[in-house]
Amino acid sequence: MSTSIPETMKGVLCTAVGGPEVLEYKTDLPVPKPGKGQVLVKNSYMGINYIDTYFRGGVYPSPKPEILGRDGEGEIVAVGEGDVYDLKKGDRVVWMGSGGYAEYTAVNVLHVARIPEGIPETIAVAALLQGLTALTMIRESHPTKAGEFCLVHAAAGGVGLWLCQLLKALGAQVIGTASNATKIEEAKNAGAEFMIDYSQEKDLVSKVMEITGGNGVDAVFDGVGKDTFEEDLKVVKRKGTVVSFGNASGTVPPLAITKLAPKCIKLLRPQVFGYISTREEFTHYTEELFRFIQEEKIPVKIHKIYDLQDVQTVHRDLEGRKTMGKLLMRP
Ligand code: NDP
């Protein structure tokens, strides 16, 4: 490892299962060493994703203490042994992995991409994980066709805005949900043709049926989970697809599979790292994602760039439903 890499770094430790107060900012965490097939990235920006709150709050069990954070952007400052593709020291990259809430992260090269010329670093990092989540779902969970009706919950969120934009680009008709007027406006600008304020609307099912002429939607994309899942099964049309990809309101309880029978519903619970687990898949989808940004001019909404020290506020804002689009931090 180069001598210019320090022994210790700034970062945030999730010290226990709990609320945002268990996130402790530190200035003396050990800098990780890149293992076989890894590179060490000096992060300029780190992403925040809803999944970070699941690990912090114990929805997804994980050993503590741990450094949360699934994505980031920065410079490769050291390269581990083994095959690292064509990546080298000095490259500016975006990555998906773990241990992002820190100045330095050792990342498996499988999920590391050089930033294409012409895409700003903040846009590239804001796009990567949430954009790939949306892209893999519209390509693989429900290969979406022009003219289809798709319901997108939390349409002004990070993944939600991506879904609105990509579905619109494919020619689908998006019905979105969001919890206030500002979010509704944001999702409309991103391509949602119809918006429902599900914090006010008492009969979401009737509303969706009215919009779709009584047929229901071809697909539901639901990252909200517990609060919306039962309605998903009601608004999806016969032979339609329900893609349940997250638990912002809590996890979906176990269900009797026979519930799917009357309408022959296809139900999926995908995760982005499942769709993208080889280098070929990663390259294929990141190239397509960057193409959408560069050629189709899809804008990438960044809610705010916070300081790493303010990580507790970041988690409170995200869980408090105060945000739209991607949240980033800088060290
Ligand atoms: P978002 O920016 O979408 O934030 C979550 C949003 O969920 C809120 O803004 C809020 O929007 C809505 N929401 C509804 N009910 C609640 C509630 N009770 N508490 C808090 N928020 C609520 O986050 P992300 O884009 O990071 O993630 C969206 C979803 O996608 C999450 O469930 C996440 O776990 C999932 N995800 C899944 C992946 C996968 O691979 N399966 C990968 C990435 C994300 P509103 O106020 O409009 O209701």
Describe what this molecule looks like in 3D:
The strands form 3 sheets. Strands 3, 4, 5, 6, 7, 14 and 15 form a 7-stranded mixed sheet that branches. A 6-stranded parallel sheet has the order 10-9-8-11-12-13, sandwiched between helices. It starts with 7 loop residues before the first strand and ends with a strand. It is α/β, with parallel strands linked by helices and 331 residues long. The longest helix is centred in the middle third of the chain and has 21 residues. 29% of the residues lie in helices and 27% in strands. It is globular, with a radius of gyration of 20 Å. The chain contains 9 helices and 15 strands. It binds NADPH dihydro-nicotinamide-adenine-dinucleotide phosphate (NDP). The site of NADPH dihydro-nicotinamide-adenine-dinucleotide phosphate has 29 residues, from α1, α2, α3 and α9.
Quick recap of the structure?
With 331 residues, the chain is α/β, with parallel strands linked by helices. Helix content is 29%, strand content 27%.
Question: Unreliable stretches, pLDDT < 50, 5 or more residues?
Answer: none
How do the helices and strands follow one another from N- to C-terminus?
EEEHEEEEHEHEHEHEHEEHHEHE
**What is the overall shape?**
globular
Question: Count of helical segments?
Answer: 9
User: What is the CA-based Rg, rounded?
Assistant: 20 Å
Largest sheet: 7 strands, mixed
Gap between N and C termini, in Å? Answer: 21 Å
